[in-house]
Amino acid sequence: SQKIEQNSEALNIQEGKTATLTCNYTNYSPAYLQWYRQDPGRGPVFLLLIRENEKEKRKERLKVTFDTTLKQSLFHITASQPADSATYLCALEMDTGFQKLVFGTGTRLLVSP
Amino acid sequence: GAGVSQSPSNKVTEKGKDVELRCDPISGHTALYWYRQSLGQGLEFLIYFQGNSAPDKSGLPSDRFSAERTGGSVSTLTIQRTQQEDSAVYLCASSLGGSYNEQFFGPGTRLTVL
């Protein structure tokens, strides 16, 4: 069956360091992958989208990589700040013409001052 | 402009009662989605609308769950004969439709079934 895995354990890092979050998937052939940020009590907010033919995407301090051979995406936050503390969700859509996103369970990031 | 809004923000109900959850998408967004998020869990897809039609209802957990969308805008998710396991945050999202478009989420409705 289709499965998306994100590290369920919280990631604790110090301010200024680079945070790296992992999203692995099986039995998928996603046309693209999206990353969202979710704060407590709020809905997810879109951050970045990367297509299957793109290896890397950047936006300010954020960088996403997409390795369709490894079936893995890495999400990096450089020069992390306490305000980056949140849960980060990856989501995949299969290239079926549907627009349904399948979400991972998310990884909680805690950035300490 | 206004984002996706949902009402009520919180709903407490007794087991066996019916509830209606409302979603107002961003104006002009043709696609609308409902998700459920249980405590500490990821988002579970429930149903997707393109316009007023629902090409994918595969995520509805049981026949107690139904949803409709009217006028290509407002959507209502109805849960009949609620059970305690229905307690969760119900999130609505909208998008421009088509692939490669981000989804814009509302703040969610927290449903508690006693």
Structural category of chain B is: mainly beta
For the largest interface in this structure, which chains are involved and how many residues does each contribute?
A: A-B, 25 and 27 residues
Q: Using only CA atoms, what is the Rg of chain B?
A: 13 Å
Percentage of β-strand residues of chain A: over 45%
Cα shape of chain A: globular
In angstroms, what separates the terminal alpha carbons of chain A?
A: 41 Å
Low-confidence stretches of chain A: none
Q: H/E element string of chain A?
A: EEEEEEEEEEE
Biggest sheet features of chain B:
7 strands, mixed
N-to-C order of helices and strands of chain B: EEEEEEEEEEE
How much beta of chain B, percentage-wise?
over 45%
> How many helix segments of chain B?
0
| Broad structural category of chain A | mainly beta
Roughly what percent helix of chain A? under 10%
- State mean pLDDT of chain B (0 to 100 scale): 93
